[in-house]
Each structure stands twice: as C-alpha cells, then as structure tokens.
Amino acid sequence: MGKRALPAAMIARLPLYLRSLDELGQRNPTISSVRLGAVAGVAATQVRKDLSYLGSYGVRGVGYRVEELRERLHRELGLTRGWGVVVVGIGNLGTALAEYSGLRLWGFRVVGLFDVDPARVGNKVNGLRIKHLDRMESVVEHEQAEIGIIATPAAAAQLVVDRLVKAGVRSILNFAPAVLQVPRAVTLRRVDVSSELQILSHHLARAAGRAAG
Fold first, then answer.
1. pTM for the model
2. Among candidates 135, 166, 164, 170, which has minimal Cα distance to 151?
3. Residues 24-44: what's their mean pLDDT?
C-alpha cells in the first residue's frame, strides 16, 4: 500500500513549523505544541493533528523532541534530496531569486539561468552564467533539474512552461502574472504579487470604510 496523501492545507503549514523551529534555535531539546503553534501562528490542537499525520505524537508533559521533529519535517518536505532548479527570465525578479541564499540554505541547487535578452545572456549571476533559452532543455537533462521557476513577462510564460514540461520538469513555481496550463502530472504553484496587493487594498478599503462610518 502506498503512502497516504497529506491534506493540501496541512502541507502548507509544514514549512511554517520548520521555520518556527529554526527561529527558536537550539535553546531547548523539546517543544510543546502550544509553543510551536504560538510561533507558527497555528492553534495547538491543529499542530498536534498535523504532526500526528507524520507519526510524531510527542510526549505528554514533555512535548516534541526538536531535532527529531526537524528531521521528520525535512524528510516530509523532501528537503534531503538537493533538488536542481532552473530560473527562466533573469530580470530584476529572476536575478533576486537566483541570488536568494534561502535556496541553498534549504538544499535547492540553482543549476541554470535562462533568458532571451542579448543584453543579459552571457552575464553571471551569483557565479552562474545566464544562457539563452534555447539551451534550457539540454541543461535540464544534463543537470537532472526537477524544479522550474518562471519570472518572465506574462506573454512568454505559457511557452516557457510548455518547454519545461517537455524537458521533464515536474514542479514549477510561476511568478509571471498569468494563469498557466500544465498536465495533471505536473505540480504548478503561482505567486501573484499583484493579486496579493489587491487583496491587501481590499482590506484597507474596508477598514477605512468602517472608520468613516
């Protein structure tokens, strides 16, 4: 029997728990669900329920062993694998992503940077030379890249995602302001900054309306 799938909402909370453990550091060998939940912004009952899915139940009156829990979260999130990452679109955002130290910290290896702008191709970012998009498929195959990050203009994003999928990439993080279509076997996550700002604007407008009323 295969491993049971975890609820999507729970998976989204696992990075919060891991980041919270790192923020708390090594001050104590154990941590309670109440303390972990307070740092992560999650109810203690939800913490216990989530961690029970991972087979981590803690000890009543003691809590969870921090190092054991951190290791379990790393395994569940696949952070022990050293995934290869390619970034397509090396403008301001793509450059910032390529230079982001958190990728290396969590074991992600940036193995390819791609663009079509002659003014960018050939330059180096964080020690890695930007290559023309036409070389992407060969780099993905050679480096066995599993994750693609798209930071292109919206008009180019679907073409890029199609090429990534055809090259064998099965997990894609999209920063382009476009709704992309991928096969069911491909995991696509979208980071839409403009939509998030619009949501914040909505909340500000409502708060201003209440204050005026």
1. 0.84
2. 164
3. 91
